[in-house]
Amino acid sequence: MRERPHGGSVSPLIYIIGGGLYLDITESSSLATNSKIEKMLRKDLLQMPGYEPIIPPERFGAEVIKLDGNENSYGCSHRVQQALRNYFDYHIYPDPDQREVKQALEEYVGVNSNHIVVGNGSDELIDLVLRLTLEPGDGVINCVPTFGMYSFSTVVCGGRIIDVPRKQDFSLDIEEIAKFVDNRTKVIFIASPNNPTGNLTPREDILRLLEIGVIVVVDEAYYEFSGETVINLVPDNDNLIVLRTFSKWAGLAGLRAGYAVAPVSIARHIHKIKPPYNVNVAAQIAMLESLKDLEHLRQIVKAIIAERERLLELLTELPFLEPYPSQANFILCKVKSGSAREIYQQLREKGIWLRYFNTPLLKDYIRISVGKPEYTDILVDALTQLGNFHVKTL
């Protein structure tokens, strides 16, 4: 809860929610929006809470073990670093159609480049799909718990979120999803593997959803860690869109590089509404060089998968945690005794960052990104100390 300062002029308030730092300007006499101007803004967005992002460690000026963002601890390909050092034409606009990138992606994903749209991260592509499909009040089915950008972008684009809870094992409830589809439902979002639960959605379930007739967006942000994809279904299904990213497997989270594979009829309309220079030249270079260094990057992916399994085994030995098997580069754990927030805070004091959840469907859960083996050792040692000395009092 926020409290108003006593007496004097009202200052803007800074507060933290779930790891996100926000500036509240609604009560600031100097920063608040002029009421006449505010009437010109969309009423549905004025009270909308902002997305809760992770905070970069440089904000705190300390070395940290960063296991909160599902980033690649090994970093990007050396080819990317070298190519960016050797590039000097940053004063020239990038290719607005990303033709070289799409040609390289055509070989990587195995579908014709006219199905491919490149974006400023998959976040932009989520937004573009919703801008293209939603009239005000149209419905978007969100299979919770899942990635928060689906609901965030739906609200920003004027849509109506329909939350359909997953089953106890975090699998989809297809029958329940079908009950909520009507003539105003436009999109169903499915993350596979799902973030933050790490489980895959079987191909048979995707096929059943496609039969419903609305657009199904399958977010395969963690595909490289699972090896399971439905991209090959896109050319034969005019209502299937698959999203991918270079953030996780290729270590390009800071450059925002993603792409969509969509039916040609949808892809051409997304191209029409996207900003012309939506992907900067550095990101385009980085994607091209990553795709030229697949053998190296795939070795890193193998190392992360192996470390994921080792981390899972070690977490299973901690009596206060219940880790879930994962097909991504993170592991979700239920805190069986104690408080997820307290564990999060105490680890943060030791320089170890992870994510914690305290929502109705994820009451007292933490999510741990898979890092290098030495990060695992430090993390597990810290968790063991918490179990031995603190958990009973959390």
Helices and strands, in order, run as EEHHEHHEHEHEHEHEHEEHHHEEHEEEH
CATH third-tier fold name of the largest domain: Aspartate Aminotransferase, domain 2
Q: Which architecture of the largest domain would the CATH scheme give at its second level? A: 3-Layer(aba) Sandwich
Count structural domains.
3
Q: What is the CATH C-level name of the largest domain? A: Alpha Beta
Q: How do the strands line up in the largest sheet?
A: 4-10-9-8-7-5-6
Tell me about the biggest sheet? 7 strands, mixed
Helix content: 25-40%
Q: How many runs of DSSP E, i.e. beta strands? A: 15
Percent of residues in beta strands:
15-25%
Shape: globular
- The N- and C-terminal alpha carbons lie at a distance of 21 Å
| Protein structure class | alpha/beta
CA-based gyration radius: 22 Å
**Low-pLDDT stretches:** 1-32
Number of helices, counting only DSSP H or I runs of 4 residues or more = 14
Question: What is the CATH homologous superfamily assignment of the largest domain?
Answer: Type I PLP-dependent aspartate aminotransferase-like (Major domain)
Tell me about this structure.
- The protein is of the alpha/beta class and 394 residues long.
- The chain has 14 helices and 15 strands.
- It has helices at 35-38, 43-46, 78-85, 99-109, 121-133, 149-156, 174-179, 203-212, 223-226, 264-273, 281-291, 294-316, 340-349, 373-389; strands spanning 13-17, 20-24, 65-66, 116-119, 139-142, 160-163, 185-191, 215-219, 240-245, 258-261, 321-323, 330-335, 352-353, 355-359, 362-369.
- The strands form four sheets. The protein has a seven-stranded mixed beta sheet, with helices on both faces. It has a four-stranded antiparallel beta sheet with strand order 11-12-15-14, covered by helices on one side.
- Strand 5 (139-142), helix 6 (149-156) and strand 6 form a beta-alpha-beta unit.
- The radius of gyration is 22 Å and the shape is globular.
